[in-house]
Structure formats: C-alpha cells, structure tokens
Specification:
The protein is an alpha/beta fold and 302 residues long. The chain has 7 helices and 5 strands; from the N terminus they run H-H-E-H-E-H-E-H-E-E-H-H.
Length: 302
C-alpha cells in the first residue's frame, strides 16, 4: 500500500492538473461565442451567392458549358481538404478529421486513383506530413481563419479541376451545431452538383419553403455563361472559407467539452485519493495505538 507522502504528492499533482483544465475550459467557453457569431454572420453571404448561382444555372445550355460542373466518367485523381486544429486537448476532434480524410483517400486508391490532400491545422498536417501527395498545408490560423488561406486553396482547386488534373474534390471538417455539439462532415465539393446544392440550401425557414431564386427577368452581361463562370469559383471559395470558420467554432466547443470532462475526472480522482489517504492514515494511527498499548502491556508484565 502506498505511503501517505506518495498519496499527498499524487493529490497535489491531480489538483494542479485540474486547475489547468478548468482554466482552459473557461477560455474555450469565452471564445465559443465570438467564433459562433462569426460563423453565423458569414451565412447570409453564402446564401445570397447560392441564390444567384442557382438562378443563373436555370439555363441547361449554360450549365453544360461550364467545366466546373462537368462530371468525369472516371476518378483518376481526387483531392481531400482536411480542416482540423493547430492544438490538441480537444478530444477526438483532430483524429476524426484525419481518419475520415484517410478513409476517403484509401477508397480512391483502391480503385486505382491517385489521392491528394490539403491540410488546414498543425495536427492534421503532422498526420499527413509524410504523405507523397500533400499538395498544400496551412498552420497557425485554425482558431482565427483568414480569407487568404481559403483563397489559395480555392484557386488551386479550381485551376486543377479546370485543367483536368483533378476529377473529384471532398472537404472534411467539423460543423459547430451549437456551443456543445459538433458534427463531422465530409462534403462533396467538385464537380459541383446544382441539385445537391439546391437541396442543401433549402428549405430554410420551414419545411415547406424551398431555396429562393432571384427573378429570372435579369439580363446577364456579357452573358449568363460568363456570369456563371465567375460565380462558381466564388461559391467554392465561400464554401471553403465557411468550413474554416465553422471548424474554428467547433474546435472551441470540442475543447471546452474535453476540458470539462477532464476537470470532472480530476475531481473524481482527487476524491478517491482523499478517501485512500484517510484510510491509510487511519490504519497508520491504529497501528501506532496498538504498538503503544502493546508496549505498555509489556512494561506492566515486567
């Protein structure tokens, strides 16, 4: 059985850890609101851009001429954009993204395709550090995403797809449903499926309201085809940037949840160790009393 000194040291160590986890929980709680507000504020722009794109895409001939909307018969080269965190201590937040991205890539490779990956976040970048087809990696801005990173990713993806160097693009990230819950999402990005976009975009206010289309009486200059050619890359850029912002909010929620659980576990351990300490101390006192009584009895017999 451990002695009293070892138990006291163990209790002090766990209490120190508990103070750290509680502080991190409080910091994450403070950051969640701002991160969620940023995510909510960016949604109207994405919704408006989608409305306009769907309106322009009503013309089947215009859609058929856009290279970003053309499906390839065979996937020879695919790309996964994995969005995670720069820091750990967030439960399975980073591991879930990395493993899901790896699962998608292995599926392509089993079919004879080449799989590329773009990583956002230090943890997922370290996971794929030695991957032969790591196209790009971004670190240091997972908690506060910047638009320039999203622009670089979107530019690479759109150019590669237009040139035929990519046949399919997926993005994996966590969606912050609220301050507590996060959903892991693996979304299809390219080729752009307008029907799927329309279904994902609506209904918005209630179950009977579908996605709104802007009036089709507009005349597009120089042409609807040209306008759609500008809108699709902008839509891809917006989706990627929204995923980065959404992941940042989800990261704080996941870290808060992990630190809250760690704090509760530390309190449980301290309570268990305290009971053990009291039992050992009581046993030690009882032993000392027995020794004193035994010694006194021995003296009386003499």
């Amino acid at each position: 059985m451990a002695n009293l000194r070892d138990i006291r040291k163990r209790i002090a160590s766990v209490q120190s850890t508990e103070q750290i986890t509680r502080t991190m929980e409080m910091v994450s709680t403070a950051k969640i609101r701002r991160a969620l507000d940023r995510s909510v504020q960016s949604e109207p722009y994405k919704a408006a851009l989608t409305d306009v794109m769907l309106t322009v895409a009503q013309d089947a001939e215009v859609v058929g001429n856009n290279p970003m909307l053309k499906r390839r018969d065979e996937v020879k080269r695919g790309l996964v954009i994995a969005v995670a965190s720069d820091r750990g201590l967030a439960g399975g937040f980073n591991v879930a993204v990395a493993r899901t991205a790896e699962k998608i890539m292995r599926g392509w490779e089993r079919d004879g395709a080449t799989a590329e990956v773009i990583t956002c976040g230090r943890k997922v970048s370290e996971y794929f550090r030695h991957h032969p087809n790591l196209a790009m990696h971004f670190e240091g801005s997972s908690a506060d995403p910047n638009f320039e990173d999203a622009r670089m990713i979107a530019s690479y993806v759109c150019d590669a797809y237009r040139e035929g160097n990519l046949d399919r693009v997926e993005i994996v990230y966590h969606h912050a449903r609220n301050r507590v819950d996060q959903d892991l999402r693996a979304e299809h990005l390219l080729p752009l499926d307008l029907e799927s976009v329309q279904l994902a975009h609506g209904p918005r206010k209630n179950e009977n309201e579908g996605p709104r289309r802007v009036s089709s009486s507009f005349r597009f200059v120089p042409s609807a085809e040209h306008v759609l050619g500008e809108l699709v890359p902008s839509y891809i850029l917006t989706v990627i940037h929204q995923a980065l912002i959404d992941s940042a909010a989800a990261e704080q929620g996941a870290r808060r949840k992990a630190m809250h659980s760690a704090t509760e576990n530390a309190n449980t351990i301290v309570a268990t160790l305290t009971r053990t300490y009291n039992r050992v101390r009581q046993a030690s006192i009882t032993t000392e009393i027995n020794e004193i009584v035994g010694g006194a009895s021995a003296l009386e017999e003499q």
